[in-house]
Specification:
The complex is a heterodimer.
Chain A (H helix, E strand, L loop, with lengths): L4 E6 L3 H12 L4 E5 L13 H7 L3 H5 L5 H4 L14 H4 L2 H4 L2 E4 L35 H15 L10 H4 L13 H17 L4 E5 L33 H8 L5 E5 L2 E6 L5 E7 L2 E12 L3 H12 L5 E2 L1 E2 L2 E7 L17 E6 L5 E8 L6 H4 L6 H11 L3 E7 L8 E4 L5 E4 L6 H18 L3 E2 L5 E2 L8 E2 L25 E3 L14 H26 L1
Helix pairs in contact in A: 1-10, 1-15, 7-15, 9-14
Chain B lengths: L1 E5 L4 H12 L3 E6 L8 E4 L16 E4 L11 H18 L2 E5 L11 H15 L3 E5 L1 E3 L5 H12 L3 E5 L3 E2 L1 E3 H13 L7 E4 L5 E2 H12 L6 E5 H18 L2 H8 L7 H7 L6 H4 L6 H18 L5 H14 L9 H5 L16 H18 L2 H8 L7 H25 L3 H4 L8
Parallel strand pairs in B: 1-2, 1-4, 2-3, 4-5, 5-6, 6-11, 7-10, 8-13
Antiparallel strand pairs in B: 9-12
Helix pairs in contact in B: 1-5, 2-3, 4-6, 7-8, 11-12, 11-14, 12-14
Classes of the chains: A alpha+beta, B alpha/beta.
Bound molecules: flavin-adenine dinucleotide.
Chain lengths: ~525, ~425
């Protein structure tokens, strides 16, 4: 009995494509399957402010012909209300049988996964942050580099966060900064001595966005459509990598094949799933799970038939708004809509926070009006005058502060129970105070009542449910993400990270997937040599 | 059922055909022109009366064909055509349903009315049903309804006849429901059925409703004694009298009131109110929702929202919410600025207040996503400066405070202000 493929990769998100590259390059016969959802609503084709001023049909991408944004008016993030991104999130929970309680469970069935809507923030973990990982930091370095060079990063600059991000040698210079953020940065340069004692460091954001053209993808021109869809393809999404993979003849892509179960009974491994043409079982020597932490964990637990609850990391998150009084009345220039400035903030007991500052232009004002303590009519008046001098920011704390648990139910569904450790409110309060102080010194007011802590899961950074361990147990994976108790099943997405700091984790997921992909292809070559 | 309809391309006929088809009936059109729908068709011409043979298996025959223009009517030929039709129906064992007129009378002032009366007799003799509709309105702008609409649109005033003729309006769709019921039911005895509002309304009120609800503009009524009209008719001669519709007008003025409640009940139809039937969609709910949308959007935008924007609001409420209006009090619809009275977040909100907040947020989201909204929310192209912005913010806060004070003052009168809205329930 021979397998249909050498390996099947489940998921075309950042993890899936990153694992696929080394395998495909090594000549393995690879099948990649995913939920296959694609963009349905066209994003604006002109710069944001031009589209807003001229496009009579702007409601189609801002609200949606089916009133998508109104239907989802109560969801956690403005991104979850963007009609052009609806395909990214739709159908995930049902297809993957996820039930969540006190937890915002978000995942994707899209081609390219959640990276079709992500914020592009990236970072490399320092050797200390890799302490809990069962391999030496040098082992993943090449993978960090390979992935970084492939996807295209920007933001490299000698500043106070160069070391923190650790990717400058592989990145292009930053995208032009806008006026408000450059004021803050200037002020920081001048008053560094006042704020660094508060554990605060500021620098340009390192992001997976092009500041220089790369073949078909064009550099960011600050047209401000980041949230709605970049027609220049400056923002990295895993769908870009998928296009590159499709060029290999030993790579097969099957879009819209939703895996429901793994079949591990025989000598071979197989995925059972369905697409438009019905149910099907496809076999392979190895299966590589990259369906996103929640979906992957369910498939793994089901294959293991493991019913004990396992823990998962998710970052506590907060959002806030800053006001720069001196900038009141400044015009709204077109601007890059993702992180332009980032900060690292040391808190108590070795806990640190990480956050970024964003331009507000590309975000609908309705998002702010809704939370104003003024009536709508005057709230709009007020914000119209105020918003151009405002900056929004977010803050992530380490994932280990979460107490979220996952458990497989007898009906095959995955139950998520959300929660944070009890010190989180206190840490958040401390963070708010620190940030207020720091930004005051930098000429910005942290607006009262604007600092809001998100619900568990709202970060959409779920990790460490099947962590890599040197000596794994059931519900864990070995140093190469291979599921303990089931050979040839590999976990390459967030689920197998061993620890999750406050930093953006996706680059690490990708590097780790690349690392595991390399290892599998070495084994494969070895085996071939032995046969010969 | 297999139904044959004469006059299938007319004002009522066309609508009847469409509705009957949607109900799953089979239709054979008998008319001069081939109907737009792709249905069976036999030629039928009132003015060229000849023997007719009905197609197989017809259950009922609707006789709607009629010449409405007085000086074109040749009563004998029309009678002849009716006779042929009735004979064919009797032979085919089909029920005949004749659409007559409120003006049908032996001594009616118009030929039209007299001819109708005579045909009625034939139909009743053949055990058929006669339906006398009142003033039919609504739907496409055709027939008398279309004429009235066009006149109101054109004229700066509406005539208020003295003494005022009374009409008993019936919306075309309600009439059609009644007609189909006549065909479907076996328990309705051969008789004359009167379909129209139980309470007659003055013709002036009818015209005024057209102007306000349909044409959406106020037209002052100008008193016009009927006697004067008659006199004008007398001196203008027969031809001009017909052209100006003076005969028709006078036939209106001495209409006998129909007793309709019994027949309405028999046919199981409830007539919609005039103000709701007169809207373009024939539906008051929509009209009220449109006004609500217009008010909320105007409150948000500070300028009149475009019709497209209002449509979006209405659609969203129909698609996502219950599609019912909030029934905001009239003064808020007239002066949307005062919506600020309701626009605050109470510590504990009732389900009405939550719904109101939802809709206001909807108005904000929709308003913003438009060219109008981009101006209002982003101020693209406006000059901004520190002082201007500061001034605007201060003004917003002061106005907010004023409304809050007003809200406090208005508190004791809440019950009166919001008497009819869902808020008071
Ligand atoms: C709004 C937002 C902002 C973000 N910002 C950042 C950021 O700034 N920095 C950062 O590091 N991270 C960010 N993230 C998180 C980041 O997007 C994810 O960490 C990353 O996409 C995870 O990659 P993945 O490949 O593991 O899974 P996903 O991207 O979720 O991909 C899952 C893949 O699996 C497929 N799939 C799912 N279920 C099945 C199934 N049953 N059968 C077959 N295929 C299946 C899907 O089609 C998809 O291709 C953000 C996320 C969101 C939503």
């Amino acid at each position: 009995m021979s397998a249909d493929f050498d390996a099947i990769v489940v998921g075309s998100g950042p993890a899936g494509v990153s694992a696929a590259f080394p395998l495909v390059q090594a000549g393995l016969k690879i099948l990649l399957v995913d939920g296959g959802r694609e963009m349905q609503v066209k994003p604006p084709s002109k710069p944001y402010l031009v589209s807003r001023a001229e496009d009579e049909n702007q409601w189609e991408w801002m609200v949606g012909r089916d009133y998508y944004s109104l239907r989802n008016i109560n969801t956690v993030s403005p991104k979850l209300r963007v009609p052009t991104l609806s395909y990214v999130f739709e159908g995930f929970e049902a297809a993957n049988r996820i039930n969540a309680h006190d937890f915002i469970a978000i995942g994707s069935l899209a081609r390219g996964g959640l990276s079709s809507a992500w914020g592009c923030g990236i970072a490399r973990l320092s050797p200390e942050e890799l302490n809990d990982f069962p391999f030496s930091p040098s082992e993943i370095l090449t993978s960090y580099e390979t992935v970084s060079r492939r996807i295209g990063l920007s933001g490299a600059l000698k500043d106070d966060l160069s070391e923190y991000f650790g990717i400058d040698e592989w990145a292009d210079p930053p995208i032009p900064i806008d006026d408000l953020r450059s004021r803050i940065l200037h002020r920081y340069e001048k008053r560094k001595a006042d704020v660094t004692p508060l554990g605060f460091k500021l620098g340009r954001s390192r992001i997976a966005v092009l500041s220089q053209d790369r073949a078909e993808r064009k550099a960011c021109d600050t047209s401000g459509n980041c949230m709605w869809g970049c027609h220049r393809r400056a923002l990295y999404t895993a769908a870009e990598d998928l296009e590159l993979l499709k060029k290999f003849s030993n790579f097969t892509y099957r879009s819209g094949f939703v895996v429901d179960e793994l079949d591990c009974a025989g000598a071979l491994r197989a995925v059972r799933g369905s697409d438009m043409s019905g149910n099907q079982t496809i076999s392979a020597s190895k299966i590589i799970l990259a369906a996103g932490t929640l979906a992957t964990t369910r498939l793994a637990l089901q294959a293991l038939n493991l019913n004990k609850p396992i823990s998962m990391h998710a970052c506590p998150i907060a959002a806030f708004m800053l006001w720069l009084p001196k900038a009141l009345g400044s015009a709204r220039p077109p601007a890059f809509g993702l992180g332009q400035l980032s900060f690292a903030l040391k808190l108590e007991h070795g806990v640190a926070g990480f956050g970024s500052l964003f331009n507000t232009t590309g975000i609908p004002s309705a998002e702010f009006v809704r939370h104003m303590p003024l009536s709508k009519r005057y709230g709009i008046d007020f914000l119209k005058a105020l918003l151009s001098s405002c900056v929004v920011g977010n803050l992530f704390l380490p994932g280990k502060l979460s107490t979220s648990m996952l458990s497989l139910r007898t009906d095959g569904s995955l139950h998520v129970e959300g929660g944070f450790r009890k010190e989180v409110p206190e840490l958040m309060h401390l963070a708010e105070q620190r940030l207020r102080k720091v930004f005051w010194k930098l000429g910005a007011v942290l607006l009262p009542m604007s600092f809001t802590v998100g619900k568990p899961g709202g970060d959409i950074h779920y990790t460490c449910s099947l962590p890599m361990r040197a000596r794994p147990d059931y519900g864990e994976t070995d140093a190469f993400g291979e599921l303990f108790g089931l050979d040839d099943i590999y976990v390459v997405d967030g689920a197998s990270l061993s620890d999750h700091s406050e930093k953006s984790h996706t680059l690490t997921i990708m590097a780790n997937a690349d690392r595991i992909g390399r290892k599998i292809s070495y084994d494969y070559k070895d085996a071939k040599c032995n046969i010969v | 059922m297999r139904l044959l309809v004469t006059g299938a391309t007319g004002y009522i006929g066309e609508r009847l055909v469409r509705h009957a088809l949607s109900q799953g009936h089979e239709i054979i059109a008998a008319s001069r022109r081939r109907p737009n729908e792709d249905i069976e068709w036999i030629p039928f011409d009132l003015s060229a009366a000849s023997e007719i043979i009905l197609p197989e298996g017809i259950d009922s025959v609707f006789h709607l064909a009629a010449t409405t223009i007085s000086h074109d009517i040749d009563p004998d030929i029309e009678m002849e055509a009716a006779k042929h039709l009735i004979k064919a129906a009797v032979q085919a064992n089909a029920k005949i349903i004749f659409i007559s007129s409120q003006t049908a009378r032996k001594d009616a002032p118009t030929v039209y009315g007299r001819t109708k009366w005579q045909i009625e007799k034939l139909v009743l003799a053949a055990a058929g049903l006669v339906v006398r509709p009142g003033q039919v309105y609504g739907g496409p702008e055709r027939a008398l309804f279309g004429e009235l609409l066009r006149s109101v649109r054109r004229l700066p005033v509406i005539p208020a006849f003295l003494p005022a003729p009374k009409v008993q309006p019936v919306h075309i769709d309600d009439l059609i429901v009644a007609l189909l019921h006549c065909a479907e039911s076996n328990s309705i005895p051969s008789s004359i059925l009167h379909i129209g509002a139980t309470q007659p309304v003055s013709f002036t009120k009818f015209l005024r409703t057209i102007s306000i609800v349909r044409v959406r503009g106020y037209r002052p009524p100008i008193p016009l004694p009927i006697a004067l009209v008659r006199f004008a008719g007398l001196i203008s001669g027969k031809r001009l009298r017909i052209t100006l519709g003076i005969d028709r007008l006078s036939s209106l003025s001495d209409l006998p009131t129909m007793q309709t409640d019994h027949d309405l009940q028999l046919l199981g139809v409830t007539l919609r109110p005039l103000s709701s039937g007169m809207t373009r969609s024939g539906n008051e709910r929509r009209r009220i929702l449109i006004r609500e949308g217009q008010a909320l959007l105007q409150y948000v935008l500070k300028v009149r929202p475009t019709p497209a924007l209002i449509r979006r609001y209405v659609r969203s409420i129909e698609l996502i919410r219950d599609g019912e209006s909030l029934n905001l009090p009239e003064f808020l619809l007239v002066a949307p600025m005062a919506i600020a009275l309701l626009d605050h977040t109470p510590a504990q909100s009732t389900s009405y207040e939550e719904e109101f907040t939802w809709r206001l947020n909807t108005a904000v989201v929709l308003a913003e996503a438009s060219v109008q909204g981009a101006k209002r929310f982003l101020g693209i192209g406006e000059y901004n400066g520190f002082v201007i912005c500061l001034g605007r913010m201060t003004r917003a806060v002061i106005l907010e405070l004023c409304w809050r004070i007003l809200r406090l003052i208005a508190c004791p009168f809440w019950g009166i202000l919001f008497r009819n809205s869902r808020l008071s329930k």
